[in-house]
Amino acid sequence: MIYLIILAVIFFGLLYYIKRPKSIAEATPAVTETYRDILLKEVDYYEQLPEEEKEQFEKRIHLFLHEKKITGVDVEADEHTKVLVAASAVIPAFAFDDYNYPMIREVLLYSNTFDDSFLHPNREMKQDRISGMVGEGPLSQVVMLSKPDLIRGFQNKSKPHNVGIHEFTHLLDKTDGTVDGIPEHLMDRKFIAPWIEEMEKEVRKIRSGSSDIPPYALTNHAEFLAVASEYFFVAPSEFKKKHPELLAYLQKIFRQEVSEEGVQPID
Ligand SMILES: [Zn+2]
């Protein structure tokens, strides 16, 4: 008898498991409408996508918001800001189907720039004010962003800065285990050496004042990739005009292409 009961429990357990609704529910039309409103108003990248890709983009936004926690530390994490966080994540990863940053679980929002003294309590020199960072050590599953800087990244069209895209590019760079400006998982091995050479070439131009890539790119190769990627996604036509060689590499890394309309995944 006891075996029958055990069998019955297993049977119904399996049935439940099989019939369990998918954990990621489709967004309701009302939710999609909200995303769409915010994206159309704020995110140029989304606006230039063809209709079909727009739908795909909305799904990815929903997936991100469904799986990641977005917490306001000393500021409100409103719907509008949450959608911008998700857009920052989806833009550089859009060509990688369903990729949703498994290494992070939470995004923390701050009311202003912050310093990283909480990570290095013994360091004497204070770091400059930071508008965003990928956590380290116990915070390695966390991304921290200054809310006003995140919003400014989407509003200020005159400067190719977007702290959200910057930080999520670091995370894509980290998919091979290190944030070093060489996202080995995303690029063909044969392009690695020429990519490093290309970065070095541009570094010399920045140093001599003959490049408009922001000088923060000089920090190291990881920052070079993140800074150049901000520019690539925020001002694609200008980037294409001024940096055709770098463009070729970024198109390969992100599997996205700059066309007349803007940037979109390569089929
Ligand atoms: Zn950085």
The H-and-E topology, N to C, reads as: HHHHEHEEEHHHHHHEE
Would you identify the CATH H-level superfamily?
Collagenase (Catalytic Domain)
Describe the biggest sheet? 4 strands, mixed
Mean pLDDT: 90
Question: What amount of the residues lies in strands?
Answer: 5-15%
Q: Quick gist of this model?
A:
Helices cover 51% and strands 9% of the residues. The chain is built from eleven helices and six strands.
What do you see in this structure?
The protein is an alpha/beta fold and 267 residues long. The chain has a single domain, classed as 3-Layer(aba) Sandwich (Collagenase (Catalytic Domain)). It contains 11 helices and 6 strands. It has helices spanning 2-19, 29-42, 44-47, 51-67, 79-93, 147-155, 163-173, 192-207, 221-234, 236-242, 244-254, and strands at residues 69-72, 106-110, 132-134, 142-146, 256-258, 263-265. It has a 4-stranded mixed sheet with strand order 1-2-4-3. Strands 5-6 form a two-stranded antiparallel ribbon. α4 (51-67) packs across α5 and α5 crosses α7. The structure holds zinc ion. Residues 166, 170, 223, 226 line the site of zinc ion.
Q: What is the fold's blueprint, element by element?
A:
Elements: H1 2-19, H2 29-42, H3 44-47, H4 51-67, E1 69-72, H5 79-93, E2 106-110, E3 132-134, E4 142-146, H6 147-155, H7 163-173, H8 192-207, H9 221-234, H10 236-242, H11 244-254, E5 256-258, E6 263-265
Parallel strand pairs: 1-2, 2-4
Antiparallel strand pairs: 3-4, 5-6
Helix pairs in contact: 2-5, 4-5, 5-7, 7-9, 9-10
